[in-house]
Specification:
alpha+beta, elongated
Length: about 90
């Protein structure tokens, strides 16, 4: 799971959670798999971060108000919930 949390133009906090299947044997080693996945994720993160930071850099006092479409509201709520969990704002 990925979460981007823009701080300012040029700065984005990023959180990545990765999960694997439960080991059937203690000899099962996910190190190589996780290593490849993390390297690929870094490429995607770098691309996405550049796009998001350029978008944020273009926003200013005279920009139109940005809103998510109705279809994205569940994503916004999920983002706010995760951000609250990470910030320790859990009720």
């Amino acid at each position: 799971m990925q979460q981007y949390d823009p701080v300012s133009p040029g700065e984005t906090n990023y959180h990545l959670w990765m999960m694997t299947a439960r080991r059937k044997s203690e000899r099962t080693d996910f190190t190589a798999l996780l290593s490849v996945l993390i390297r690929k994720e870094r490429t995607v993160i770098a691309e996405d971060t550049r796009v998001l930071e350029r978008l944020q850099d273009g926003l200013g006092n005279h920009s139109r108000h940005f809103t998510h479409g109705d279809y994205e509201m569940h994503l916004v709520r999920q983002h706010l919930w995760y951000r609250a969990q990470l910030a320790g704002e859990v009720e």
